[in-house]
Amino acid sequence: MPDSIKALVRIIKAGTQSVNFGLAYFIVSLCAVSFVYGIFAQKYKIFPQPLIADAARAYEAMRGYDSEEMMNGLLRFDENAPQRPTAETLDAEAGDEFILITGGPYFFMDECPEFGCVAWITDRQGNVVHSWDVNLQELFGDLSGFSGRPRIHNFHPVGIALQDDGSIYVTFDARNLFPYQIGMAKIDRDGKILWKHFDNTHHWPTIGDNGLIYSPSVNTRPAFSFFANTKIDTGCDPAGFIYDEGVRILDPDGSTVNEFSILESFDRADRIGFFYGIRNGCDPVHINSVERVSASIAQQLPEIEEGDLLVSLREINAVAILGGDSGDLKKVVAGRTAAQHSPRFLPDGSVLVVDNRGGDRALGGTRIVRLNLVTEESETVFPRVADDRITPFYSSGGGLIDISPDGTRFLISLEEQPRSIEVDIATGKAVWVLHKTSDITPYLEKKRLNAPAETAHFRSMGAYYVSNPGFLSTPD
How many Å is the Cα radius of gyration of the chain? Predict the structure, then answer.
């Protein structure tokens, strides 16, 4: 036997003689018991699985952690940016309605000096005719049930619905919190908080002609492995979570009238195959818009009734109509858009949709598309040609459309761009734009911060036509 082999044998014998086999057996047995217990803990949700799941959810909330020095919504600093939002008429086809603009925390403090404007109304020259300066500390100071950092400037208004008396319904989200979908508040014309329900309604609410509020909603569920009773794998970490999203219908006091799950709607319709191959099984629906079908629209859509609901489901690239009471799937148009947002009815029953990623890359990559829900045909409305004033036109996510009262124009706000644009539908031309910039000096002084510039551009979450401005005649 070679000397090297003999030496190896001596080493092995010496090692085995020094091993405490009793201790080794104990350690192996403990590992085996722990492994088996872990399987049972995961399956039956017993200790310590709930603690692990909570820790995983907190980790997910913080993994996307964003800098908290500046207010939520700031896109970029620019020393040459105007100190306040500015309006620009691009074409004679621009309308003359007042426009409601979504603001943000500590934004536009020249107009709203305490906490910044949650929202304001402008004329077509950019003059402010009304604003809402809301006490955000009072609004969020007692927030509970969320993981992360509930600092005031981490919150941001998303959707706004204006009432004839000047009150507004506002949904809020937040960075560095889990879940990020916070909920809704009602605020009167003077900025007083009338009620708040932090129950995870989100995105852009709408008000039906019946006075009810229609909003996307979410219930955060412990992760499950498969969709419904199929073998379609969600791909979610068992210690994580899944956003079970749907529609919530509220009365004017914020109480829930009805609610249903989109996952259950597709399961009942035997259309569960839509969830095979989605990008993120932990966020399988991502509903971002709800609009009630009016009587006039229902007359133009076969088998659709007044009170049904038009919804946008981002993750399956689908626009659908659900039964207004049951949530049953009645119509779905899929594959015509990519990661879309905010379908809105035109008077003829077709819809305009923000097609976030299905547009011409040479023009930016986002487009506004018109969908015929009967034939499922589509056409690009905007942008059709390059325009140095407007293109590139792109936002990877987010975007709100609002249709003019006469149905000939629309306002589009893209989340990742600091402007809201009015477009003539017939020509596809941009006719008016509001640039969302602000002097942030008051905020910098308040927080004792330094910044590359004292003016900045802010994301645009929404712009709306003010069709009933009667409350503006009442003195502030």
Answer: 27
pTM: 0.85
Phi and psi at residue 233, in whole multiples of 5°? -75, 130
Q: Return phi, psi of residue 89, to 5°.
A: -85, 125
User: Strand 147-148 vs strand 177-178: parallel, antiparallel, or unpaired?
Assistant: antiparallel
| Other beta carbons less than 10 A from residue 415's beta carbon | 20
Predicted confidence (pLDDT) per residue in 17-31, tens digit: 554 556 556 565 665
Contact call for residues 205 and 217 (beta carbons, < 8 A)? no
Which two structure tokens, joined as six digits, stand for 275?
Answer: 């969830």
Please say if the pLDDT value at position 219 is more than 60.
yes
Q: Which CA distances in Å does 20 have to 23, 25, 34, 305, 429?
A: 5, 9, 21, 78, 83
Dist. CA 343–CA 350, nearest whole Å = 10
Q: Would the pLDDT of 359 be above 60?
A: yes
**Hey, what are 328's tokens?**
């049953």
Cα-to-chain-centroid distance, residue 278: 18
Please name the residues in contact with 317: beta carbons below 8 A apart, sequence gap of 6 or more: 334, 335, 336, 337, 338, 339, 340
Q: Per-residue pLDDT tens for 239-279? A: 999 999 999 999 999 999 999 999 999 999 999 999 998 99
Q: What is the distance between the alpha carbons of residues 202 and 158, in angstroms, rounded to a whole number?
A: 8
Q: What pLDDT is attached to residue 62?
A: 38
**Contact by Cβ (8 Å): 108, 116:** yes
pLDDT reading at 55 higher than 50: no
For residues 290 and 214, what is the distance between their CA atoms, to the nearest angstrom? 6
